[in-house]
Amino acid sequence: MSQRVARKRGERVRAILTTAAELLGERGYEGVSLEDVADRLDVTKGSLYYYFASKDELVTAAIETLGTDWTDRLEALPAGGTPTDRLRALLREHIRIAVREYPAALRLFLVPDDWPEDQRARIKALRRRHDAVFRAVVEEGLRSGEFTVVAVDPTLQAMHAAMSQAPVWVRDDRGIDRLADTLMMLVGVVPVRPGSAG
Amino acid sequence: MSQRVARKRGERVRAILTTAAELLGERGYEGVSLEDVADRLDVTKGSLYYYFASKDELVTAAIETLGTDWTDRLEALPAGGTPTDRLRALLREHIRIAVREYPAALRLFLVPDDWPEDQRARIKALRRRHDAVFRAVVEEGLRSGEFTVVAVDPTLQAMHAAMSQAPVWVRDDRGIDRLADTLMMLVGVVPVRPGSAG
Amino acid sequence: MSQRVARKRGERVRAILTTAAELLGERGYEGVSLEDVADRLDVTKGSLYYYFASKDELVTAAIETLGTDWTDRLEALPAGGTPTDRLRALLREHIRIAVREYPAALRLFLVPDDWPEDQRARIKALRRRHDAVFRAVVEEGLRSGEFTVVAVDPTLQAMHAAMSQAPVWVRDDRGIDRLADTLMMLVGVVPVRPGSAG
Amino acid sequence: MSQRVARKRGERVRAILTTAAELLGERGYEGVSLEDVADRLDVTKGSLYYYFASKDELVTAAIETLGTDWTDRLEALPAGGTPTDRLRALLREHIRIAVREYPAALRLFLVPDDWPEDQRARIKALRRRHDAVFRAVVEEGLRSGEFTVVAVDPTLQAMHAAMSQAPVWVRDDRGIDRLADTLMMLVGVVPVRPGSAG
DNA sequence: TATGAATGAGAGTTCATTCAT
DNA sequence: GATGAATGAACTCTCATTCAT
């Protein structure tokens, strides 16, 4: 395969993955048919099989795209400031992306048990990289004494669970901030002027 | 209809609902077909329609069964002790049920938008009742000054999100306790000897 | 079987047939399920099979009831007057019954080809008796010279077809009269003051 | 889509519609399943959904095909002659088509009440166009004084009802002519040598 | 006699997958 | 590379029919 052809193929694949990621992020696995993906790309269903062997393969790759993009954006946040500031920024950005772009994200990362090990592994890796971003800041905060946790793992897991569910109840920017502040408490950071409003 | 027959029918309905709840709790709405439910009950698909008018009806009733049972067990916990003790007990029990019995429960309570209003309402009511159990304790803790929160709603939502996701990563009793303690931090209760183990 | 029991059975059968005839007259064969019939009788589906071997049997018998009742009422019309008056009265009464009570009658008498010969024969006999009522008057009118027809059979058939379809377009009493007058033309009786209004 | 492909698709659609129209014309809506249509085309049920979104859509389109074809043939009849001659020709042709090709046509044009408005409208339009052919001749005959009617609407309706029912009793060409002549009486045209043969 | 329960065939529909062109 | 077409399995739902009690 010539380089030119390979490049072209790469572009095509990327277009498919981006589109699929969008749709999956909006409606989740069972909510998206290959017809939907093809339609939005102005292509026919059959064509997708030229690039991917099955729906699962396509979905896995698309989730990879989506997850990578997501993590990239978190990593691109400014590095300076205290762990507290950086964690809060991370939380806000994460929630913002979840709410605005990938409302169905939660469902996506829960891969069905009967998928091939290969694909499960790829998504696991994705989660790990994503997780590392948060873990680094939390651990730094622990070292500096700013943070207190029962254990790192459940803390991170609780954070992610809450953020993924956010699209269900968070409506506006104020909701995002309140949720971020609430999650800061998981590392022992109590906001300056805590309230008790419903 | 004679009493004896009515009782028998009740039993049958309960058997169906229990079975359906189990399967739904394991695999979620789209993961369960009526064939699956019928198979596990050793009857044919069509028979289910003798008791329920549609899949949605059956599923709604099953979710109701599952949710009511769940909340009942939380409400049955001993009433005494400080809010801190009671919230921790609630969290532990909730996580235990989620992990051991209804690993896919999370997805269940997110009712599809296109369901009949009637059924949406029933499930909403269920969620409200469930929520009230936690809310009462949290508010008591706030009044007594034991708890601190940014706002009650996101706190409860984060708790529930984390607990529902628990089946994915929690494996043993220690995991349950660590998660419960972690979530206690959402109300500002820091454990006596906080650690930092991964 | 004692006489008392036989009588009771007869009553039950009649009740079923009347109800079935009603429903069939309203909605036609495919529009009525045994459940519908049973429901309206406050009985269960299964019970019907104690009296009838199959849906077709029940339907045939019900059509017989309906058809007999219908013909009875036509025969009960006053005998006096000219053939013209009597035919017009017959037409009006027939249309009235079709429109008000058995809007789906047309479909009913068109028995599916694959029904057992026995049942086809019974319905044929019914139609014949019904037909005889009109035929008698038409033939009398022909003998008396009041009527003119191309041939008796197609005349009668056209009359019946039009009357059976009447429920689709006839709305009020005026519609009934206009249709009856129109059909009188089939025997050469032109109304005194013919119009041409749509 | 290339022209060649579009043409091929058109042919396929036409084949489906023709087949469906045939079956529908024979057995009516409820008497035809998609399986039946697919079988006769030597394809599987699912394939039909590649061309039509639902049974109703397919049926509507098929009825449209059938109805258009029918009306086309009536409109193609020679235009000359008196209204009497032309109406008789129309009646004969209409009955011939009904008897030979679409014996169940009657039921087809009675669209179920719960169909989407869109489809009801399409079939209504069809009926209107069909009706117009007869109405034009009848009105011309009225203007020229050849015809006499009670009212135009019931006259046309009675004609159509009788013709649609014709397949039930008309057997041969003589039957067709006798029925046509009989229906001419609805507009006051009495045949030259009226008989009274049964 | 009648009931409640269950069955099984068949309906319409969806969709991942295949394949000749 | 991509398309249009077709497939076949799975799904929800309906209903005439059977049968133990």
Automatic annotation (TrEMBL), chains A, B, C, D:
<dbReference type="InterPro" id="IPR001647">
    <property type="entry name" value="HTH_TetR"/>
</dbReference>
<dbReference type="Pfam" id="PF17932">
    <property type="entry name" value="TetR_C_24"/>
</dbReference>
<keyword id="KW-0805">Transcription regulation</keyword>
<dbReference type="Pfam" id="PF00440">
    <property type="entry name" value="TetR_N"/>
</dbReference>
<keyword id="KW-0238">DNA-binding</keyword>
<keyword id="KW-0804">Transcription</keyword>
<feature type="DNA-binding region" description="H-T-H motif">
    <location>
        <begin position="33"/>
        <end position="52"/>
    </location>
</feature>
<dbReference type="InterPro" id="IPR023772">
    <property type="entry name" value="DNA-bd_HTH_TetR-type_CS"/>
</dbReference>
<feature type="domain" description="HTH tetR-type">
    <location>
        <begin position="10"/>
        <end position="70"/>
    </location>
</feature>
<dbReference type="InterPro" id="IPR041490">
    <property type="entry name" value="KstR2_TetR_C"/>
</dbReference>
<dbReference type="InterPro" id="IPR050109">
    <property type="entry name" value="HTH-type_TetR-like_transc_reg"/>
</dbReference>
<dbReference type="InterPro" id="IPR036271">
    <property type="entry name" value="Tet_transcr_reg_TetR-rel_C_sf"/>
</dbReference>
<dbReference type="InterPro" id="IPR009057">
    <property type="entry name" value="Homeodomain-like_sf"/>
</dbReference>
<protein>
    <submittedName>
        <fullName>TetR/AcrR family transcriptional regulator</fullName>
    </submittedName>
</protein>
